[in-house]
Amino acid sequence: MTTIEGSVVLVTGGSRGIGRALVSALYERGAKKVYATARDPRTVTHPDAVPLALEVSDEASVAAAAEQAQDVTLLINNAGASVKASFLDAPVEDVRREFETNFYGPLLVTRAFVPIIERNGGGHILNVHSVLSWLGIAGSYSASKAALWSQTNSLRLELKPRGIEVTGLHVGYVDTDLTAKIDAPKVTPESVAVQALDGIESGAYEVLADDLTRQVKAGLAADLAALYPQLAA
Ligand SMILES: NC(=O)c1ccc[n+]([C@@H]2O[C@H](COP(=O)([O-])OP(=O)(O)OC[C@H]3O[C@@H](n4cnc5c(N)ncnc54)[C@H](OP(=O)(O)O)[C@@H]3O)[C@@H](O)[C@H]2O)c1
Hints:
By secondary structure, the chain is of the alpha/beta class. The longest helix has 28 residues.
């Protein structure tokens, strides 16, 4: 079981939104050190965090971050972007970019940090998915988060014998820059961070951090028409 107190954590996208809330919540629970990454590390404002530059889709940038964070025991793959490219109308390059950030990015970071976490005696990885991993209403964003969910499920099996636990976080609308243009009820990044850390500490395979996510997950076994009322229109 993972204990946050005394752990050394790396949070990708730790300068704002859910990532910044995670950095604060980790220190509140007694983490020894938290690396917070951003493409521009000067945007990391938490006074105790160790800022690191990271572009998750760039292998050299991932390698450089890993080189500087050799003491990590807990990795949080939080960085993500929402292009929501339409499969029919958007340039296919936008679809690829969404996968580079949301699927290949966490994969590159995980591959770089697994040997480090192993050398440090084992630990934990949290991947930030979405309710949209289970609901295809946001084009390439939904697809990239569904693929990440699947990646997480496979990694959990591969990493268990190597002493690394894996948790996936699913959530609906959270009040961050990513949803600034969406007019819908939103939960706070702080509430998501608390539930995510509870999930890590209890060894949960999945954390469902709001009512919408719990409803959608519960509906997955039903007929697809129940999940997609648009089909009846
Ligand atoms: N907000 C929601 O409603 C919601 C719901 C479900 C899941 N999520 C997921 O939660 C995670 C955090 O989202 P958020 O809402 O906190 O969004 P946000 O406020 O827009 O922050 C996104 C973070 O990801 C980083 N990032 C984006 N692209 C990156 C790249 N190519 N390389 C490195 N870092 C990159 C950003 O870093 P910079 O500061 O360098 O730009 C930023 O720190 C994402 O994975 C998102 O998909 C969000």
